[in-house]
Amino acid sequence: MTRWRAGVTGRMQDIPASTQSDQALYSKELGRAIDDVIDPSRSDAGHDGTWSYLTLMLFPDLVVKRWGPSADGKLSVDRWIGAQLGRDRNYLKLSWRNWDILGEVMDEADPPLGEDEFLSLLERTALARNPRIIRVAAKEVIRLDAEHGMGRSFFARELLKRVTFQTGPLVLDLLENNELAALVSEQAKATIAAFTKPRRSMLS
Questions:
Q1: CA–CA gap between residue 161 and residue 48 (Å, rounded)
Q2: Inter-residue contact 142 to 113 (CB < 8 Å)
Q3: How far is 137 from 119, CA to CA, in rounded Å?
Q4: What is the mean pLDDT of each run of 10 residues along the chain (204 residues)?
Q5: What's the CA gap between 166 and 172, in Å, rounded?
Q6: pTM for the whole thing?
Q7: What is the phi/psi pair of residue 54, to 5°?
């Protein structure tokens, strides 16, 4: 436990969490640190008690830096302990899960992927069981050109809807990596085309 605390806090001590972009980077690096230093087993990671213990007993200073008290002085139960019903939002658990699934793909994003993008990428049951799909889709989200006039969060949500629809006629788990990349790329292009108005010619 002492080694875990020293290893993780040492990684995080110089990383700010003041702006929205800082917070996204902080969450990414926290997930990376937990994975590198603690390397949770699947069985331990599957127990909510593991994360609430780490949050309350081992790393409260790291969590409070991102999720401090609200205006009424209370801490978020969802972020500190985790939801008793519905989607689990324990901060340490989500930070680690995001890194565990996406890994160094997250390093390609500038600005870092935010909570809305992770929600679109990771909360669809039909896709969550296949990390390959999530990583390929994340790369398309990261590649989105600002000139298309869409925010990444909106694009991620619409892209994942289209990819999820493909799980009906296709068993995506059986596709080779290049086939999966081609399918997701095609859906990304279709998403952009559906929500991008063609520019008017200056000669018209």
A1: 29
A2: yes
A3: 13
A4: 96 94 96 97 90 96 95 92 74 95 94 91 82 94 82 93 86 90 95 76 48
A5: 8
A6: 0.87
A7: -60, -40
